[in-house]
Amino acid sequence: MELDIVELSRLQFAMTAMYHFLFVPLTLGLSVIVAIMETVYVMTGRPIWRQMTKFWGLLFGINFVLGVATGITMEFQFGMNWSYYSHYVGDVFGAPLAIEGLMAFFLEATFVGLFFFGWDKLSKVAHMIVTWLVAIGSNFSALWILIANGWMQNPVGAQFNPETMRMEMTSFFDVVFNEVAQAKFVHTVSAGYVTAAVFVLGVSAWYLLKDRHVELARRSIAVASAFGLASALSVVVLGDESGYSASHTQKMKLAAIEGMWETHKAPAPFSAIGFPDKEARETHYKVEVPWVMGLIGTRSLTEEIPGINDLVAEAEEKIRSGLIAYDALMAIRAQRAETPEEVRATFEEHSGNLGFALLLKRYVDDPREATEAQIAQAADDTIPGVAPLFWAFRIMVGLGFGFIAVMLYFFYRASFRAMQFPRWALRGAVIIIPAPWIAAELGWFVAEYGRQPWTVDGVLPTALSVSHLGVADLLITLAGFVTFYTILFIIEMGLMLKYIRKGPFEDVEETNAWVERHEHRLRTHDGKGPFAANPAE
């Protein structure tokens, strides 16, 4: 096995996936925020809310188009770079992706057109429904993709067929309602909502600092802070659900995230900081918070969370069990219909660990010929990179709690301080605009890097999943993708900055007239309304 091919294939997919996910969270969240704004417009009839809908909808549209362009190439990579993976699990993995294309993407793409070109052709209520369908389509698209990804993390509802040498679906219901997939969906979507809320908050804060589009900016901050606060709280709560799910579906990932080498007496503590050392199998200078990891991982005070060393020993036992399954499988392949029933029974008994035997393919063509040292090395290979996972997770969590604090502050100022915001707070809102993207990328890093050495956890090793390509082929396509995606990213940034600087340019006269009338009403009353002008201005 040429490991350089595997690493280059992983690098290429990681690059394209992380580039693509620069666009996805903003699409998910901004579509819902725009739908909320248009709903307020339909309910109140105030033209400023229509102007807000059109302005933020334009930024959504730019992001949506470029997100589609970057997403298409990802699906082609399964056939180009990961052909054996596609052959081995395509019957299961392909189903949610096909549904995503047929149901969610067509729904989303169709109604995006109506959103932009239907303002003068549809009634207000009909256009609002279209906007909500765009938001629903965006989130449906994420649902089916995350169902596919969740199956890679926790392959339920499928089994290996020794006749076809492929994984085949046994329960579509189990695949769809896979606990990992559902936890990933709500967590990922909530993170997208936070991303959009921080984006709207930051851009609106910039307008207030420049004293431009003040009424639009204040209302946008009110929506973004309320929506963002609810979303940020959801991210933390639903992240806890992901941790609980990992405690019984991906134990090694959870132990690596915690840097827990030895099984700790229940309830396990959470290491706030530490320095994992894979060579010494120890985490140095740990600062622990008692009980927290046990509560997150098991939701009890009595259940243990196994450490990495115990999980390696368990993996070695599974490799030996998988070798029995592999030997029986070779007999079935050789004898076909004449295979004795006891051989098939032996295979069925040990087939759940077949993937662990395939880890030996990295070292020997026939796993049955593996030495004791190779078996021990294959068991050690089940340990992912502990230090990167440890710190990526903590940075992501720290940012998550930071978003709660930011949204809570702006929600308080918008709700109880007449939408008056200190300039230092507005500058801070602008500065943190990139932060949710960093958190989202770290989240995907933890999810995918923590699954290694598996493409499908416990079923198919990454080293076996790649296509038979040359190093030159991968280097050329990698360079091409980097160039193409970088150009798209520059285009995205250029267009977004152009229209942010330009500001809302539609319905200007009607909106300005309404704002003047509104301010006059405030002045002629007590002047204490939520949108009253600041006397110091």
From TrEMBL:
Can you tell me where the transmembrane regions are?
20-43, 55-73, 93-117, 129-147, 190-209, 221-239, 391-412, 424-446, 466-491
User: Where would one find coiled-coil regions in this protein?
Assistant: none
Keyword Membrane in record? yes
Example of a GO cellular component annotation carried by this entry? plasma membrane
Q: Which UniProt keywords apply?
A: Cell inner membrane, Cell membrane, Electron transport, Heme, Iron, Membrane, Metal-binding, Transmembrane, Transmembrane helix, Transport
Main location (coarse class): membrane
Listed InterPro entries = Cyt-d_ubiquinol_oxidase_su_1 (IPR002585)
One example of the protein's molecular function in GO is: metal ion binding
Q: Per its UniProt entry, which superkingdom is the organism in?
A: Bacteria
**Bilayer disposition of the protein:** Multi-pass membrane protein
Subcellular location(s) of the protein: Cell inner membrane
Under PANTHER family, the record lists: CYTOCHROME BD-I UBIQUINOL OXIDASE SUBUNIT 1, CYTOCHROME D UBIQUINOL OXIDASE
Protein family: Belongs to the cytochrome ubiquinol oxidase subunit 1 family.
- Name the chain's protein: Cytochrome bd-I ubiquinol oxidase subunit 1 apoprotein
